[in-house]
Specification:
Layout: E1 5-10, E2 14-19, E3 23-28, E4 33-34, E5 37-38, H1 46-61, E6 69-72, E7 78-82, E8 85-86, E9 89-96, H2 99-108, E10 110-111, E11 114-115, E12 125-135, H3 147-154, H4 156-178, E13 182-193, E14 199-202, E15 211-215, H5 231-240, H6 253-271, H7 275-280
Antiparallel strand pairs: 1-2, 2-3, 3-7, 4-5, 6-7, 8-13, 9-12, 9-13, 10-11, 13-14, 13-15
This protein binds ligand PZK.
The site of ligand PZK has 17 residues, from β1, β2, β3 and β7.
Length: 287
């Protein structure tokens, strides 16, 4: 008899279940958040797009860095994974100066201990990608920390191994995306350690929820960039003058349809698979 999936926890838009003692099931919903608030309206198939993208990247980077993926379920929105001992840090890789990194740079000239050249503009490409570790806040916002603070949490050798793995993954994915018209501005990785002590990539990877994707054709440093996936949602929410506190606004059908189309576009550009083919048989992204 198959063992029941035991619910372990909820992320903002995902659910985590245990499958016996050593496997997990990660299920991506169609919920969408903006300005850190979950909206009442879902975007159909968003969870399938994110799951398919994660599975695609896990399949293509397993020789670069071992990862937790065991199987992609035929519902297209669930990943069976190896259970790891997760490290208590996030590893963000940034090839461009955006978000909290831009704010920290403007204030201090540095990001997580990386001193950057003077005069950089918002969204400018960095000469070399940097790893900016952060703590995983139980509630509220993750806090940027420097490499020494990250090493104090996980050990120096382990941190250096994670940093190097994160840079390899980013270099591979950013080059793949750039060749397809998408800038991977930054992305967050979560690593764990398996039963043999091997550093292993976990969580979701290289999705629009864990990354900033920008359209290369529209890239214009010197200010904030339009988000490849969520820009219609942000623009609509800004047009309402909503105060960005719970509950968020309902989304009108045109915003939902336009946003779904952007997620599907990103999926098709990055994976090279038609999204209809993925819906018919999710395993297409693994081949
Ligand atoms: C793990 N999360 C985040 C929380 C979600 C996801 N392979 C793993 N081994 C052990 N723990 C985790 C993983 C993974 N991935 C991931 N928390 C623990 C999380 C809530 C919902 F979908």
């Amino acid at each position: 008899m198959p063992e029941a999936a035991v619910h372990l926890g909820s992320g903002k838009v995902r659910e985590l279940y245990a499958l016996g003692d050593d496997r997990l099931l990660l299920v991506a919903s169609d919920r969408i958040s903006t300005f850190d608030v979950i909206l009442p309206t879902e975007v159909p198939d968003k969870g399938r797009v994110l799951t398919g993208l994660s599975a695609f990247w896990f399949a293509r980077t397993r020789e670069l860095v071992p990862n937790h993926l065991l199987a992609l379920r035929d519902d297209g929105r669930s990943l069976e994974c190896r259970r790891l001992e997760m490290l208590p840090i996030e590893c963000v890789v940034r090839g461009y100066l955006a978000g909290s990194a831009w704010r920290d740079y403007e204030r201090t000239g540095a990001v997580c201990g990386h001193r950057l050249p003077a005069g950089l503009r918002e969204a400018e490409r960095l000469r070399q990608p940097i790893v900016t570790p952060a703590t995983k806040a139980e509630s509220g916002h993750d806090e940027n920390i420097d490499a020494a603070a990250a090493a104090a949490r996980v050990g120096r050798a382990r941190y250096e191994q994670a940093e190097a793995a994160a840079l390899r993954l980013y270099a591979f994915a950013a080059a793949h995306a750039e060749a397809r018209g998408i800038i991977l501005a930054d992305t967050k990785f979560e690593f764990g350690v398996d039963g043999e002590g091997t550093l292993t990539l976990g969580d979701e990877a290289l999705t629009p929820d864990s990354s900033r994707f920008w359209e290369a054709d529209a890239y214009a440093p010197g200010g904030p960039q339009a988000s490849y996936d969520k820009q219609f949602v942000r623009d609509y929410c800004e047009s309402l003058g909503w105060d960005k506190t719970h509950p968020g606004p309902d989304l009108p059908p045109a915003v939902v349809t336009g946003t779904r189309a952007r997620y599907v576009d990103a999926f098709e550009l990055l994976t090279g698979c038609a999204f209809d083919a993925y819906l018919a048989d999710p395993q297409v992204v693994l081949r």
